[in-house]
Amino acid sequence: MPSLTSPRHLRLAGIPLPRRIADLDLFAHTTRSGFLWIVASEVGIFVWAVAGTVTGGWPDSLSLRLFALLTGFAILHMEATRPAEERRRAAHLSGEHIDHTGVWTCAGAFVLPIPLVVALVLIIRLRRYFIARKPPGRYVFTTFAITSSALAAQALATATPVHNWIRGTPVQSDQVLSAALAVAATFAIYYAAQTVVIGVARGLRGDWSWISILGNRKENVDLAITLCLGLIAAWGAGVAYGLLLAALSVVVVGYTRHTQRIEQLEQERDRLEVDALHDPLTGLANQRGFNPAAALALVADQARRRPTAVMMFDLDRFKQVNSRLGHLGANEVLKALAVVLRGSVRRDDLVCRWGGEEFSVLLPSTTRADAWTIAERIRAAVESMTVELTKAAGGRTELVGDFTISGGIALSPEHGTDLATLQEFADQALAKAKDGGRNQVRVSPSVPLPGPRAARERTLDPS
After folding, report:
1. Among candidates 59, 65, 24, 57, which has minimal Cα distance to 42?
2. Long-range interactions of 230-233: CB distance < 8 A, separation 24+
3. How many other CB atoms sit within 10 Å of the CB of residue 73?
4. Mean pLDDT split into 10-residue runs, the chain, 463 residues
5. Which of 40, 99, 308, 445 is the most exposed place for a label (fewest CB within 10 A)?
6. Domain ranges of the chain
């Protein structure tokens, strides 16, 4: 899909729009059709809210009391769960987030007229903005989507006996089934309204998957529980002057904290799974994480009859580095080397800390010449690498350098088709590089490179 933005302007139908609009995250990462959908949705929902507010008239005393109760308990809920909610939102930066203040928004949709529904949504969203961790454009659009849900649910609740029933009108025995169906329909339209508004915007950005539009099972269960609590809150606001809301607030706060605790445990589990496959010092894959991925890449290249390159690198004179900089300083060197390795290879290449100061790299679909180019790029980058260290005495920082690395390259299928064999050949080439004076790259089997570098026995011709 064509991008909506250019480096200097956002263009819509050939008309450049100010950069300030393009900087709003929601607009900067969408398509032209997505931009039109966002603007049209916001304008339509705004008109709907304004029209309902203007034609709704002044709310009656019961509506004002219910509004005050729901607003007050919503604020108490937000304040009581603020630390937990901040952690939840920080954990969900790259995914979907279900805000449990939907309890109060949903309750308002059941029992309040349009002007007070809109006011309740705005109060909650304004208060939440300070921990939202979202760009303004995206947050405003989400607020419009939530408003659409509240307005749609309010319209259906008012058109059916649900509104009057929850506000205190007795339900006749022959109306129980129809009332239950009306409540279910109100839940459904609350869910559908923001799902359509947000889901279409996501789809027009290029992701029409069901998960993207409808959310996953866990998110939908969380939302369903939130809406059910909203129904209880709506009913409780009219019972004993809202005293039942105090008990419900304890339940809502407990549910929010329980959800946050579950998410913390899941994040800890995910972190442990990641740590099991990665080196804790450098962040690179360890052997447990590298070997299966490397084996799969080798099989894929063999199936396509493409070459694969495997490289082994060893930091030269690492014992001297350790003596010169100390253990902590040597660790910083290894971390800097990991950054160089990742920055010198391609996105799909695999990099592993094999052990100590030794690193392994696998380059899928890579010829001898390309592998040579990448290995030389790594060697040169390490040769010019500097590391910033802080001295223990006095806290002074200084840049240290004078690092070199040696490498060996093996190629599949030329030298073998499995990882262990290729690494053995690459290790043999690495040993020759060390014996030849270090700070060089060799390919197995070794062939002198013509020219000045051959005279110094530092490299091997990749051709």
Report:
1. 24
2. 230/102, 230/103, 230/104, 230/105, 230/106, 230/107, 230/109, 230/110, 231/106, 231/107, 231/110, 231/166, 231/183, 231/187, 233/70, 233/73, 233/103, 233/104, 233/106, 233/107
3. 22
4. 35 44 50 87 96 88 92 87 71 62 91 95 91 80 94 94 85 79 92 91 81 79 85 79 69 69 62 66 89 92 93 93 85 92 91 92 94 94 87 62 92 92 94 93 65 40 43
5. 40
6. 10-275, 287-455
